[in-house]
């Protein structure tokens, strides 16, 4: 595209990236070796980096992906492992022009393996500090709850003293809700989101990814979400779409993820133009870049190839992303 240089140079924010989803096969295998972890011997995908990458091109659903995602992250054990993972992501994101990143992690996926909350969080905080000092990025950390686990488990994690301390001192600025969407509607997590609101902790949730548009309304009404992760299926409900546009909620779209996980047939069917025309605000994000083979610049370019956006469209997308970020007004002005 003739706009490629402009797209490269855009000041980007990334707001929907699971740090565990940035675990590239090379780091996965080197950490497995370091810790003497034997990855599923009965799955041929784990025989080599190339076999694993090939398998990642054939995901059949969100749950198929999540199986690999949860096995992959089992190689993360020490603080330095979490730091290395996040630092590699920040360096790559900075190269793509990301100046502000709001990054997810899944505490329960590590707590359940006996990893201490402060062990994982310290690694991420160390990498954040380094990205801020050396790459001049700003970084916010968001803790996500896993919707496929019992709600009581999420509640116990939310109430945990170490987790509460990380909200109070701002190491973690917000909460999210991820993992399998079908069978786990947002309202199940209302109690946690009510508590988060009382503590002034920011709130988002995955909704309308593989689940219906109704989950988007529920995330707004029942959970008091301040933005929506994915929101792909908002386009199926014109009335809700008008409401989201009128009230200015931001969607953190992840089009490459949606294609790889078969939530949408191809980039052409991602309702980018529909959202732009309806005044629905959205940012473009990589979700799990190591698993979907695309970081944020790859994602922007793939969107441009399919949708042939104008300079004005790109300015709208980037401005809305910046304005929808959970940073200070002062920082937003620097990013503009
Ligand atoms: C995820 Cl693509 C996606 N959807 C839901 N939960 C997730 N966790 C990591 N990636
Ligand atoms: Zn996600």
Automatic annotation (TrEMBL):
Extract one GO BP annotation from the record.
nucleotide metabolic process
> Matching PANTHER family, A to Z?
ADENINE DEAMINASE
Per UniProt, residues of the Adenosine deaminase domain are: 11-336
| Source organism per UniProt | Microthyrium microscopicum
Transmembrane intervals: none
Q: Where is this site: Important for catalytic activity?
A: 230
Q: Which GO terms describe its molecular function?
A: adenine deaminase activity; zinc ion binding
Keywords assigned by UniProt, alphabetized? Cytoplasm, Hydrolase, Metal-binding, Nucleotide metabolism, Nucleus, Zinc
Q: Where in the cell is it found?
A: Cytoplasm; Nucleus
HAMAP family cross-referenced by the UniProt entry: Adenine_deaminase (MF_01962)
Q: What InterPro entries does this protein's entry cite?
A: A/AMP_deam_AS (IPR006650), A_deaminase_dom (IPR001365), ADE (IPR028892), Ado/ade_deaminase (IPR006330), Metal_Hydrolase (IPR032466)
Q: Where does Zn(2+) bind?
A: 16, 18, 206, 287
Residues the entry annotates as binding substrate: 288
Q: What Pfam families is this protein classified in? A: A_deaminase
* Protein name in the entry: Adenine deaminase
Q: What is the lineage of its organism?
A: Eukaryota, Fungi, Dikarya, Ascomycota, Pezizomycotina
Where it mainly occurs, coarsely classed, is cytoplasm
Give the family per the record.
Answer: Belongs to the metallo-dependent hydrolases superfamily. Adenosine and AMP deaminases family. Adenine deaminase type 2 subfamily.
Recorded GO cellular component terms are:
cytosol; nucleus
Needed cofactors, names only, are: Zn(2+)
| Function summary | Catalyzes the hydrolytic deamination of adenine to hypoxanthine. Plays an important role in the purine salvage pathway and in nitrogen catabolism.
């Amino acid at each position: 595209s003739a706009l490629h240089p402009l797209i490269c140079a855009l000041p980007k924010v990334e707001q929907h990236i699971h740090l565990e989803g940035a675990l590239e096969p090379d780091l996965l295998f080197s950490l497995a070796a370091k810790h003497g972890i034997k990855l599923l011997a009965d799955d041929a995908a784990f025989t080599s980096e190339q076999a694993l990458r090939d398998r990642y091109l054939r995901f059949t659903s969100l749950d198929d992906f999540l199986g690999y995602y949860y096995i992959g992250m089992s190689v993360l054990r020490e603080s330095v492992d979490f730091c290395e993972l996040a630092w590699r992501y920040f360096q790559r994101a900075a190269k793509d022009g990301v100046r502000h990143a709001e990054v997810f992690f899944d505490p329960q996926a590590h707590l359940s393996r006996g990893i201490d909350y402060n062990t994982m969080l310290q690694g991420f905080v160390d990498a954040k500090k380094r990205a801020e000092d050396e790459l001049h990025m700003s970084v916010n950390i968001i803790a996500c709850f896993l919707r496929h686990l019992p709600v009581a488990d999420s509640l116990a994690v939310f109430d945990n003293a170490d987790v509460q301390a990380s909200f109070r001192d701002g190491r973690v600025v917000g909460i999210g809700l991820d993992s399998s969407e079908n069978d786990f509607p947002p309202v199940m997590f209302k109690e946690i989101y009510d508590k988060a609101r009382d503590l002034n902790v920011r709130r988002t949730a995955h909704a309308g990814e593989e689940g219906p548009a109704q989950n988007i309304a529920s995330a707004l009404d029942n959970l008091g979400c301040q933005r929506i992760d994915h929101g792909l299926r908002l386009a199926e409900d014109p009335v809700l779409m008008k409401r989201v546009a009128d009230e200015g909620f931001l969607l953190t779209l992840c089009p490459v993820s949606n294609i790889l996980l078969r939530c949408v047939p191809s980039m052409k069917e991602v309702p980018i133009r529909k959202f732009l025309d309806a005044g629905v605000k959205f940012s473009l994000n990589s979700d799990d870049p190591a698993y979907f083979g695309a970081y944020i610049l790859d994602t922007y370019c793939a969107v441009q190839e399919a949708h042939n956006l104008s300079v004005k469209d790109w300015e709208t997308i980037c401005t809305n992303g910046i304005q929808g970020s959970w940073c200070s007004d002062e920082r937003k002005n620097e990013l503009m």
